[in-house]
């Protein structure tokens, strides 16, 4: 019985290290779901080898940038590398490689806000508790990934994809790109 008490105490006490260790296996799910969404939305054909290479590469990159490289540098490295890996693994245009990971990432940020607000309201906890208490962080991340997966299946079932980027001329692509980022 003492073991269960110790485990419960570990899971419910603020500890960033334990929280990161418990949530580390979930690092594989985010790139997998993002890849599924953008290959569906942008109608990108990909082989099983490309998908596996992408998920493994991004997962390793996420672990390195989270645990080894300091935060602002790790985030910057992560963004640049994701864009390059998307471009070269899936052999797509520069324009698609920029928008492919960004659109699902925007969806992830919106879902994070919604899930965090729900957790804050239900459990009457602070934002820091969700980040540092392992059980709350794991619950939040799992909720986000399950919701994203459900959105992916909905998009796939409804056959929603963007073909607009394929038929745009260079001038309109530059205009869209500049208005999106500036």
Characterize the structure shown.
The protein has 182 residues and is an all-alpha fold. Helices cover 82% and strands 0% of the residues. It contains 10 helices and no strands. Helix 5 crosses helix 6.
* Number of beta strands: 0
Radius of gyration based on Cα positions:
19 Å
The SSE string, one letter per element, is HHHHHHHHHH
Morphology call: elongated
Largest sheet: none
Q: For the residues shown, what is the average pLDDT? A: 86
- Note the total helix count: 10
Low-confidence stretches: none
Summarize this entry quickly:
The chain is mainly α and 182 residues long. It is 82% helix and 0% strand. The longest helix is centred in the middle third of the chain and has 30 residues.
Topology, element by element:
Layout: H1 2-12, H2 16-23, H3 29-41, H4 48-67, H5 71-90, H6 94-123, H7 127-132, H8 134-158, H9 164-167, H10 170-181
Key phrases:
182 residues; mainly alpha; 10 helices
